[in-house]
Design goal:
- This protein is of the alpha+beta class.
- The strands form ten sheets. An eight-stranded mixed beta sheet has the order 12-21-15-18-22-31-25-28, with no helix packed on it. The protein has a five-stranded mixed beta sheet with strand order 5-4-3-7-8. Strands 14-19-16-17 form a four-stranded antiparallel beta sheet, with no helix packed on it.
- Helix 6 crosses helix 9 and helix 8 packs antiparallel against helix 9.
- The chain is globular, with a radius of gyration of 27 Å.
- It starts with 15 loop residues before the first helix and ends with a helix.
Length: about 650
């Protein structure tokens, strides 16, 4: 089976993944008690991470002071720390100061120092030993801000703005409550919105631990975390903080309890009523109870002599050995701007010649982003020498949530002689100019040992048209019928920000149906390839049927614009509906079962190539070099609006395939 791997740290702007790991919505019983904020004027003194003492009196010449509680590993705090610096610079001449505070017991001065340097912060960042300032203000989350007026009375508390929230990262700011409160006070007005709910990571408050407890870090929790958490929660991997040692884990205790109680961690979105999967990350009830009991007792350490041997992980490539061959996407890095506006960076495509003079079989593949801070996802296609447009074959991907697969010496994917590799790159600017040079590494299989070929195919619907302001909009797709018996190995749903739910069904030749996978709450930010515990043999004449629900309403907080009708497109503000699935077939039978791409997806590929202005439509100008499309443009444009939409274009391609033009 192929190896498809997520890199070791997702782009910071993916917030999803990281907010799924560490951000949080509040639930009854999960929120630790925090002291009520002190009334009346505030005053304090504390040292920064270098030992320099600050007092609030030092800012007496400032009309307003923003006190911002931050944490060095909280994804939201990482996103907003630099934004606070921009705000401090903008309002400095108008008498506004910003002071950062780190109250986390797990954040060391060295880590805070690195955070300040990486975020290029110039406002002071104070170390709040024992959470004295957090208790004084009643702060519970990072980031959480408090705006003090000239009398140093709190006039606003809560979030900075609404762009980034748990599981949601909008293209732009809708409501900027902190900025609005500042403007109100500077103008001498009452603050219109005096408080909002802060979202993000719980402050790591020190708690007295019951060292007599039955469950401790040393005797049970460290082993559980080794088995269930450390694959992602370690330095350099995908999670926003490490859980490799006691001090780190104990500082995140309340946060861990919250995400475990809400079943957000470990991330797994499949409905347990359907299917069995080898990569199921779900905690058992016993495991969940152990974690919650440990946190309830104050996260006791126990006897370090009982600790297991540390788990070791492969660094660099996650393949079983160094790749036999590596292909970079280009000779020079691609330059990603600091900000590409609401529309983002258009998908980039890089084509690389393999120079393979014979078919090559690969049973290990890893796609590695060069710059994890700004790479959202990568898809690598094989472009055989026969027809580069109509026969692009999905090879491997890097997307949030996709982890490595086992390698089998007799099961592999085939790259035909003379093929090229096409890297499809999705970049997300993060506020500073960046560059990227991503790559893919291969392990080659012994051709004589390969008995079965793996093919990634799909069911897709490129004619989707989502109406504005509506939830539960259903879109269906079905694959071509299997030409012979095949085995299904994995299922991978793919939608964008309006994706709501996804289901795979097997339709047998007699018309009966079986649900293979149900994802009732799809998460664009954590895209899992669900590996069947046992390969599923499906008879010739069967097909995969996919049913997706989309939420294009205001209730979907991730929705870029619920007032817009939405069509197929590669960008995240557009939509896709693809059900990928891997099939396995005897090597000599591949030619009977392996379509390159389904007709609907082929339409999308061609349309994307022609759609130069990326508006989801084709103008007469964009198809002027395309012969029949240009000649018959008026006939194809059935609604007479002067552009070809996905449905009109699909009809035209179908007609050309049938010889209708």
């Amino acid at each position: 089976m192929t190896t498809q791997t997520v890199s070791r740290r997702t782009a910071l702007r993916l917030l999803s993944l990281m907010l799924a790991l560490a951000g949080a919505a509040r639930v009854s019983g999960a929120e630790p008690a925090a002291p009520a904020p002190a009334s009346g004027p505030q005053a304090f003194s504390a040292q920064d991470y270098r030992g320099r003492k600050y007092t609030l009196d030092e800012f007496a010449d400032r009309r307003l002071v923003v006190v911002a509680f931050l944490g060095v590993e909280c994804p939201l705090a990482k996103l907003y720390a630099g934004r606070l610096q921009t705000l401090a610079d903008e309002y400095a001449e108008r008498g506004v100061a910003v002071i950062g505070v780190d109250s986390n017991s797990q954040d060391s001065p060295t880590e805070i120092d690195a955070f300040v340097r990486r975020q290029q912060l110039r406002y002071p960042l104070l170390v709040d030993a024992g959470c004295a300032l957090a208790d004084q203000f009643g702060a519970t989350r990072t980031p959480e801000v408090f705006l003090l007026d000239e009398r140093r009375t709190v006039r606003y508390r809560g979030r900075i703005d609404d762009q980034h929230q748990p599981g949601v990262s909008r293209d732009k700011v809708g409501q900027s409550e902190l900025r609005a409160a500042i403007e109100d006070l500077l103008a001498g007005r009452e603050v219109a919105v005096a408080s909002t709910e802060a979202a993000g990571c719980l402050i790591g408050r020190p708690r007295p631990a019951n060292e007599q407890a039955d469950v401790t870090w040393s005797n049970q929790i460290s082993r559980l975390f080794q088995d269930r958490c450390q694959e992602c929660h370690r330095d350099g991997d995908i999670a926003p903080f490490a859980l490799m040692d006691y001090h780190e884990a104990a500082g995140w205790g309340e946060m861990i309890a919250e995400v475990v109680r809400q079943k957000r961690m470990p991330p797994w979105h499949a409905n347990p009523e359907f299917g069995h999967f080898s990569n199921d990350r779900t905690l058992t009830s016993a495991e969940r109870d152990l974690i919650l009991a440990w946190v309830d007792e104050g996260c006791p350490e126990g006897d370090p002599a009982q600790l297991p041997e540390p788990r070791t992980f492969t660094e660099g490539w996650q393949l079983p050995r160094e790749p036999d061959q590596v292909f970079a996407m280009s000779e020079t890095p691609f330059q990603v701007p600091a900000d590409a506006g609401d529309r983002g960076v258009r998908y980039q495509h890089f084509v690389v010649d393999t120079n393979f003079t014979e078919d090559r079989w690969v049973n290990g593949i890893e796609v590695q982003p060069g710059n994890r801070a700004i790479v959202h996802h990568i898809i690598v296609y094989v472009v055989p020498p026969t027809d580069g447009v109509r026969h692009e074959i999905f090879l491997a991907a890097y997307v949030p949530g996709l982890r490595s697969r086992p390698v089998h010496e007799n099961i592999a994917k085939r790259i035909p002689a003379g093929s090229k590799l096409k890297f499809q790159m999705h970049y997300t600017p993060n506020g500073t100019a960046q560059e990227d040079l991503s790559r893919v590494g291969f392990l080659f299989a012994d051709p004589d040992a390969v008995t079965h070929e793996v093919i990634t195919t799909e069911a897709a619907n490129v004619r989707l048209a989502l109406q504005p302001n509506q939830r539960n909009q259903e879109v269906r797709a079905r694959s071509a019928k299997a030409a012979r018996d095949v085995q299904v190995l994995s299922l991978s749903p793919h939608m964008h920000l309006r994706g709501q739910a996804f289901r795979f069904e097997l339709e047998r030749p007699d018309g009966s149906r079986e649900t293979l996978l149900d994802v009732p709450h799809y998460d664009f930010n954590w895209q899992t390839s669900y590996l069947l515990a046992e390969p599923l043999t499906v008879p010739a004449g069967s097909r995969i049927v996919c049913r997706a629900l989309f939420d294009n309403s205001e209730q979907n907080l991730a929705n870029p614009d619920p007032s817009k009708k939405v069509y197929w497109g590669e960008q995240s503000w557009e939509e896709m509906m693809i059900g990928y699935f891997d099939i396995m077939t005897p090597r000599d039978a591949t030619k009977l079962t392996a379509p390159a791409v389904t007709p609907s997806l082929r339409v999308a590929i061609i349309m994307d190539r022609l759609d130069k202005d990326n508006n989801g439509r084709l103008s007469r100008e964009e198809v002027k070099e395309r012969g029949l499309l240009f000649t018959f443009f008026s006939q194809i444009d059935t609604n007479g609006d002067g552009e070809l939409d996905a449905e009109e274009f699909a009809e035209a391609i179908g007609a050309m395939d049938r010889g209708g033009f």
